[in-house]
Write a structure and sequence with these properties.
Strand order of the largest sheet: 4-5-6-9-12-14-15-16
Shape: rod-shaped
Number of helices: 3
Order of helices and strands: HHHEEEEEEEEEEEEEEEE
Structural class: alpha+beta
Length: 343
């Protein structure tokens, strides 16, 4: 709608500046204006003939010419204006045929005080303009988090299933892989991932040299949470249909409310880890925030995907890299939740 408004605004602006002297401006189709012009031609030539006949009669009454000469002059005038009508209508019909052949143009017609037709031709025979090939949006994801060794099930996990959570926020760009089709898109961007783990059985992480392990805390913990913060570059191939809006000069794609599936992965860096402990000591609530090197891997990478309709989808990601470096057991972070692409 915005494009159409701008287009007609430009047309009207050109119209006004070119024909400000016209008292009446009438925009019609080519066929209508040509038919109207034919009638004008007939009336114009008839009017001219009538004036000539009146002039001949006046000269006859004054005795300047004989009745025979008057009759001959009237006959010549009638033939002249009949021929004028024929020729002028032929010109109008040729103009109409020319307009029909010029299918890639639109004609705007102005009628001036003198009755003459002035036309402006705007070429519309141009290549279709496709929608922006690349768009961007805000990405937010949240859900449950955990960490497992190879072959380990969630029932045997060292971390609380409901209490361990993740959060992700970032910015993503989406580019059509094919210039004139939108069934396959490449989605890529930058995201912050916050992966939280809550150990079971009143435990917390302890680091001694190269070893990192879970150990029971001396006091009763109200909360024990270990969090890893990552900065990653996600890349996904996104599949799915689009709504296509097409006119003579443009094509627009829209995936709102449509099924979509994204498959890909991510890679980046661990930018920090911390541990939070809450407990009571002598009746007072205590909160410890522990930061340090827990022997985590600095480089992170994994697989991820999403599936759903519209702007909310099911989302899952799995770290291929172990959380902790050798010689610690290989446990991998896994997350499942909802993803929101807010454009």
């Amino acid at each position: 709608m915005k494009t159409i408004i701008i287009y007609f605004t430009l047309v009207l602006f050109t119209f006004a500046t070119q024909f400000v002297y016209c008292q009446e401006v009438d925009q019609k189709t080519t066929e209508e204006i040509m038919e109207s012009k034919k009638q004008e031609i007939v009336q114009d030539e008839k009017g001219k003939l009538k004036r000539k006949v009146e002039e001949i009669n006046s000269r006859l009454e004054k005795g300047e010419i004989t009745a025979k000469e008057a009759e001959e002059q009237k006959k010549e005038a009638a033939e002249l204006h009949a021929k004028n009508i024929e020729n002028r209508i032929a010109i109008v019909e040729n103009e109409m045929e020319l307009e029909k052949r010029n299918r890639g143009s639109k004609t705007y017609i102005a009628l001036g005080d003198d009755g003459k037709v002035i036309t402006i031709k705007i070429n519309e025979d141009r290549e279709k303009q496709y929608d922006k090939r690349t768009t961007s949006d805000l990405v937010i994801a949240a859900g449950f988090n955990n960490a497992l060794e190879d072959g380990q099930s969630l029932n045997d996990s060292d971390f609380k299933i409901g209490g361990s959570r993740f959060f992700e926020i970032g910015w993503a760009w989406k580019t059509r892989v094919f210039d004139k089709s939108n069934w396959l898109r490449l989605k890529y961007g930058v995201s912050f991932q916050f992966n939280g783990l809550k150990p079971t059985d009143n435990r917390y992480f302890v680091s001694e040299g190269e070893d990192t392990f879970l150990e029971e805390y001396d006091l009763n913990l109200d909360k024990s949470k270990f969090r890893m913060d990552n900065l990653v570059v996600p890349v996904h191939f996104e599949f799915g249909p689009s709504t296509v809006s097409e006119s003579k000069n443009y094509v627009r794609y829209n995936t709102r409310g449509k099924f979509k599936m994204g498959l890909g992965g991510y890679a980046g860096f661990n930018i920090g880890e911390r541990q939070k402990l809450k407990y009571e000591l002598d009746g007072d609530k205590q909160k410890d925030k522990l930061q340090g090197d827990y022997n985590t891997n600095d480089f992170v990478y994994g697989l991820s995907g999403y599936l759903g309709w519209g702007w909310a989808t099911l989302y899952a990601k799995y770290d291929l890299n172990p959380i902790f470096q050798d010689p610690n057991p290989e446990i991998h972070n896994i997350s499942v939740g909802l993803r929101f692409d807010v454009d």
